[in-house]
Fold:
Amino acid sequence: MGLDRFLSFLQNRRGRVIGALIGLIFGVSVMAIGLFWTLFIGVCVLVGYFVGKRMDEEKEGLSEILERYFPLHDK
Structure:
């Protein structure tokens, strides 16, 4: 009975739980490696997420995405 109640609690308050976990991870990261390294890692994670999302949505490879944003030659 306790596990069902706990899972129901998590499901009904998913946003709060995720937000609290993100806050906890951010706080521990700042304490462990410093604010700027934590922000740098966060930016790298976001860039990786958006590149991966773009690859999933448009069925492109990484080389096509990089070529679009960083062309190596003039057309």
Remarks:
- Residues 5 and 11 are 10 Å apart (CA to CA).
- DSSP finds four helices and no strands in the chain.
- Residues 34-75 form one domain.
- The chain has a mean pLDDT of 86.
